[in-house]
Specification:
This protein has 516 residues and is an alpha/beta fold. Helices cover 34% and strands 20% of the residues. Strands 18-12-11-19-20-21 form a 6-stranded mixed sheet, with helices on both faces. It binds S-adenosyl-L-homocysteine (SAH). Pfam families: HEM4 (PF02602), TP_methylase (PF00590).
Amino acid sequence: MTVLKGKVFLVGAGPGDPALITRKGADCLRKADVVIYDRLISKELLYLAPENAELIYVGKRPGEHYRKQDEINQIIIEKARAGKTIIRLKGGDPLVFGRGAEEALVMAAADIQFEIIPGVTAAVATSAYAGIPLTHRDWTSSVALITGHEAPDKTCGESVCWEKLATCIGTIVVYMGVKNYEKITTRILNGGRDPQTPAAIIYAGTTPWQKTIVGTLHTIAQQAHAEKMKPPAILIVGDVVRLRESIAWHEKRPLFGRRLVVTRSRSEKSRLAEELRARGAMVIEFPTLKINPPPDMMTLHQKIQPLNQYEWIVFSSPTGVKYFFDVLITAGGDSRNLSGTRIAVRDISTAEAIKQYGIKADFCGAGLTSSDMINSLITQQRSLKNKKILIPQKTEMRTYMVQSLQKVGAHVICVDVYQISPAPHPPDEFQEHYEAGLIDGICFTSSTSVSSFLALMNLKNLHSFNDCHNIFSIGPVTSAKIIDLDGTISAQADQHTILGLADTICEYYQRNGSKS
Ligand code: SAH
């Protein structure tokens, strides 16, 4: 009989920004059979787990039954005994106020193998994103992390003695206990700390909706009440809070606080979303299309053999590159089958995609439309007469491309290395933000995504949507479609590339602010 050996990885996810997970933590997630996760975990991290991994939510949800610690322990033990690789994903660091220690003790007692992978704890991450260093040689050399969750009426003994902490610790960081701020600050004041000591509260630190308020030990609890601060929030008391004025950075990024929708095909990772997030925006991805492999890869592969008969193969997107190589590799081939064939790509991102397969593009378009790319290819290549050219994917301008190439005497072969179908419905995240009127703008990077967006939204034109939302377009073909559908474009990218679009959106908001 084989003995199944499961293993549990107790992983810290960081407090909000999914990029703050450690490399080791992310590697573990990619190998998970089961992910058991808490409330504050970013959904994006869950996408790292394999598609067939079991995801078990064990956090609290308002008004719903949530799992008690004993139940969680039981699930972990059961899954581990079934031989699974389990990721127990916890917010921040698993051992800082996270009950991770209790879970580790249970596993040790049950003789279950485990590893603990630390995470960036909320105090460290949120203070950094708010521009408040927890220590500074001129201001303070000590910091304490305290829970504000304990019943604050307890006097000293087992519980936190706020009066003692008041004067012996430089920076006091309070986790949890938003509703106890009044009592906590009063007790620190009673302990003899100067009422003018600067204090800050950071709500949802490290996220694009982070909110920070700054006051003094004397005023901060009332400010929190007035601003209706709610969890997850952290309170920082200490002179270091003064430094925020000089070193705050996260909230100063050009798109901070903007909620932008990015339309994209389902399986593509959105580079635009990445670029906008890097500029501080909250991005809601809206897949308009679903991309599927061709029904019969082997037949398709045979149809285009041998690849060295083509003078050129023309790619107009990273998706085309990905699916072309899927077909080639599934049929037992590899990059060497392309030796002797020249490769033309529409733009730099497509050139980067093909580089992943060890191939340098021989011709790269200037990042404009596929038709511009073909025109410049024709101009640059003196004669394409009688040359065979393969276009392995649908692009918005394929008919034009084929006709232009035929005019100069080329033989064009078109195949579809993938199939496109509409996405089933708008994503829930979009729906929630849309209904609450929280969306600032939408970005379109192709004319097909404009029409697919309207179809999914059940709208006839863009008119009503446009009333309170900005529309951004990557270039003239997309813009023409938007105008055709009664939309008004707030800005069109100066450079018709993803980077160009992200920069244009920043400039737009710096000049204009929001529409609604
Ligand atoms: N293990 C976690 C802490 C769990 S206790 C860690 O190491 O960070 C939960 C508390 O952490 C919240 O009530 C809040 O005080 C703090 N917290 C977690 N994420 C936060 C965030 N993004 N912004 C502000 N506080 C946060």
